[in-house]
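queue> pop job 88
queue> type: inverse folding (structure -> sequence)
queue> payload:
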C-alpha cells in the first residue's frame, strides 16, 4: 500500500524567523505518529523562503491549471504529490503572512479535498491568523483540521524554543492523526 505523503510548509520568509523550529516540533510529532494499518508516513518539507515564489505572475487563472512558469509547475507538482498538508504559520498583525497567501493563490485544483492542518505561532497562539486563513482554505476547497497555536512566553520562546505543554502536544497529536486518517488516496 502506498505511503501517506505529508507535506509540511514553513510559511515564514523572514530572515530572523523561527518557523523552522516550530516545524521541527511538527516533524518530531510525525515521526512518533502511528500510521494507519499497512501504510507508512512519508514527509516532505517545503520552505516558502527557499521556494521564493514571486507575487502571483501567472497570466491565466489558477483554476484553469495552465501554468507557464517553472516555479508554478514545481509548486503544483509538489502539492499534487501531497496527500495531507501541515502549514506552520506565524501571525503578523492578527493575520497570516503574505508569502503564504501568495503560495495558496498560485494553485487551485491541487487544493481540492486536500486535508490541511494549521500550526500557528505568535503572541496569541496565532488564533486570529488561523481563523482568517481557514476562510481562504475553505474557499479553495481544502479540508481544514485545526491544530495547536503556540504562544510566545507560554509555549514558545521568541528564539523559537518550543515548550509545548500537554494541551499543545495533545492538539498536535490529534491534528496529525486526523490528517493521516483523512489523507487523500494517491491516484
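queue> result:
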Amino acid at each position: 500500500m502506498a505511503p501517506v505523503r505529508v507535506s509540511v510548509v514553513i510559511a515564514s520568509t523572514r530572515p530572523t524567523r523561527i518557523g523552522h523550529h516550530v516545524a521541527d516540533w511538527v516533524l518530531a510529532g510525525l515521526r512518533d505518529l502511528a500510521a494507519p494499518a499497512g501504510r507508512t508516513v512519508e514527509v516532505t518539507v517545503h520552505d516558502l523562503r527557499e521556494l521564493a515564489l514571486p507575487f502571483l505572475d501567472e497570466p491565466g487563472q489558477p483554476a484553469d491549471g495552465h501554468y507557464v512558469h517553472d516555479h508554478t509547475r514545481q509548486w503544483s507538482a509538489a502539492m499534487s504529490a501531497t496527500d495531507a498538508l501541515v502549514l506552520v504559520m506565524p501571525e503578523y498583525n492578527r493575520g497570516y503572512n503574505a508569502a503564504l497567501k501568495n503560495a495558496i493563490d498560485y494553485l487551485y485544483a491541487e487544493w481540492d479535498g486536500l486535508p490541511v492542518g494549521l500550526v500557528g505561532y505568535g503572541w496569541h497562539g496565532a488564533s486570529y491568523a488561523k481563523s482568517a486563513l481557514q476562510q481562504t482554505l475553505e474557499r479553495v476547497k481544502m479540508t481544514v483540521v485545526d491544530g495547536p497555536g503556540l504562544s510566545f512566553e507560554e509555549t514558545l520562546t521568541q528564539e523559537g524554543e518550543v515548550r509545548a505543554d500537554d494541551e499543545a502536544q495533545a492538539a498536535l497529536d490529534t491534528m496529525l492523526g486526523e490528517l493521516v486518517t483523512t489523507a487523500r488516496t494517491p491516484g
